[in-house]
Write a structure and sequence with these properties.
alpha/beta, Fumarate Reductase Iron-sulfur Protein, Chain B, domain 2, Rossmann fold, four-stranded parallel β-sheet
Length: 430
């Protein structure tokens, strides 16, 4: 494998390391040694395809992690941070790796080391970080943030901002902002069949999804409870290296959903489901499943055919990275929709392995994210579907923003909202 070079003076940034090298400086990265540098991951990596640089490939990043662990690299080096923080986290490399390198866990650990050696550049950075942490835990702050965002969208407030992250954030999310759900958080009902995970985006984007999921589950005769005390799944903190913050959120969710409870935990967003499914607490991880998997198993049992409208509709499915590479539920959503009367799945041609949303990458790496997103959108709309269905909120926000510039782009719905609209007694399903 080629050496990774610094842009300044051609200095070697890292080289493959052997067991005889100096002792580990940072623990938790030893699994990077499993990489055999075969290169099978390269065609599947969106950032390597975009940059064409070894340091932005999975094996290149693993080599950098080795250098970091062995103490050869400075965790504060801008070039190193750019390579490791630039990963979209799609984990496509992990799904094709013959050596079974746990790339996702290694990237989380590497970013944790980077975060430990980050010095906030200003008081504003510190304030924004604290506010974000509090908002993930406190629904009242999220409600205020959602209200502010919706007011800003109505007033086109982004026009008053200079180019940068805040302007991009307001402009890119405006078409996905929605009112919070009408659900009332209640103490866990011992007679409920399932528990519903609400996540932290309910005050911004997913309020209608939660209402729709409850409508569908109720129509099927499934009793639902929404436990108090639940919070953000922790994905944002986990994938940006803030382990302690992620652990705090994880413990709150484990307590809220109960360690002795055996009932399924229904999760609407594939990113949240991926995070919950990898909680070290095996009980909650094993109980978490998508709405589509739960309903698919229910419909296979029969007896619910009469509740759906048979109005013809052609839909294109967007299967996000988290569903294909982490939860491995890529067959559940099409399997469910194919059981519904009147539904036709259109063919979706070749699309990038990642749509570019990548958590916050759609905001922090806009050029690459938009190119990947447009390629994904073109693949989804090539056969002129009536609707696009995506089970990931971040992907939906990103694709919806790009679709806004196309006059004939179809609506993009979550599975919950699509299914609610297909109920025979739903206003749009009559």
């Amino acid at each position: 494998m080629e050496n990774l070079q610094e842009e300044n003076g051609g200095q070697t940034l890292a080289k493959p390391l052997g067991a005889s090298d100096r002792p580990l400086r940072f623990q938790g990265l030893s699994s990077a040694d499993q990489c055999v540098h075969c290169g099978l991951c390269l065609p599947h990596c969106p950032t390597y395809g975009w940059h064409g640089i070894e340091g932005d490939s999975p094996r290149g990043r693993l080599t950098l992690m080795q250098g970091l662990a062995q103490g050869h690299l400075d965790p504060g080096a801008p070039r190193l941070r750019s390579h490791l923080q630039g990963c979209l986290g799609c984990r496509s490399c992990e799904s094709v790796c013959p050596a079974r390198v746990p790339f996702g866990a290694l990237m989380d650990r590497a970013r944790e080391i980077l975060d430990e050696h980050t010095v906030p550049s200003s008081h504003l950075d510190r304030w924004q970080h604290r506010l974000q942490q509090r908002a993930l835990r406190q629904p009242s702050l999220r409600a205020l943030g959602g209200l502010t965002a919706r007011a800003g969208a109505r007033l086109n407030a982004e026009r008053l901002l200079p180019d940068g992250l805040w302007k991009r954030s307001l402009a890119h999310t405006r078409d996905s902002l929605a009112a919070p759900p009408g659900l009332q958080l209640a103490a866990r009902d011992d007679e409920a069949d399932v528990l519903l995970f609400t996540g932290c985006m309910d005050r911004f984007f997913t309020g209608p999804d939660l209402d729709a999921a409850l409508e569908v589950l109720t129509a099927l005769g499934t009793r639902v409870a929404i436990p108090r005390g639940q919070t953000c799944c922790g994905a944002l903190d986990q994938h940006t290296g803030r382990r302690q913050a992620a652990q705090t959120l994880r413990h709150r969710n484990i307590e809220a959903f109960g360690t002795a409870d055996k009932r399924p935990v229904i999760v609407l967003d594939s990113g949240c489901e991926a995070t919950l499914s990898e909680y070290p607490d095996a009980t909650l991880a094993a109980r978490s499943l998508s709405l589509t998997r739960f309903l698919g198993e229910r419909l296979q049992a029969g007896g619910d055919a009469g509740i759906w409208t048979d109005t013809p509709v052609r839909i294109a499915l967007h299967l996000p990275c988290t569903q294909r590479n982490v939860t491995r539920e890529a067959r559940d959503l099409p399997g469910l929709l194919e059981q519904l009367p009147g539904v036709t799945l259109v063919r979706v041609g070749s699309a990038p392995n990642c749509c570019g949303a990548g958590g916050t990458a759609m905001l922090t790496q806009p050029e690459m994210a938009d190119v990947l997103g447009h390629a994904t959108l073109n693949a989804l709309t090539a056969d002129t579907p009536d609707l696009i269905v995506s089970p990931n909120v971040g992907c939906s926000v990103h694709l919806r923003a790009l679709a806004a510039a196309q006059t004939e782009a179809p609506p993009i719905l979550s599975p919950a909202r699509f299914l609610a609209a297909r109920l025979a007694r739903h206003p749009s399903g009559r």
